[in-house]
Amino acid sequence: MLATTTFDIPGYRAVRHIGMVRGVIVRSRNVFGTIGASIQSLFGGNISLYTTLAERARQDAYDLMIAHAKEMGGNAVLGVRYDANDLAPGITEVLAYGTAVVVERA
């Protein structure tokens, strides 16, 4: 599966546009992570607990988007984007989306 933030892939051409695909994940912080992150914030710099949580949520959303594209018959996703929203304190929705296509070598 090819995925790119651009709307074309050098060396390939889209032979069929399938449509929008997405992957949505909703994550919450646990109390221990929140306490650990609060301690890290006292010292400044990267708060690795939140970085790890954010990266895991993005990867899960991406994986769901790729699975959606495969289910629809695509072998590539163009124009991949991410979006995130806080649904409630400590609860975040992460969305990965793009356009599923079938590509072949040019």
TrEMBL record:
Transmembrane segments: none
Gene3D superfamilies associated with the record: Hypothetical protein apc22750. Chain B
InterPro entries: UPF0145_dom_sf (IPR035439), UPF0145_YbjQ-like (IPR002765)
Family: Belongs to the UPF0145 family.
Protein name stated in the entry: UPF0145 protein NK718_21280
Organism: Alsobacter ponti
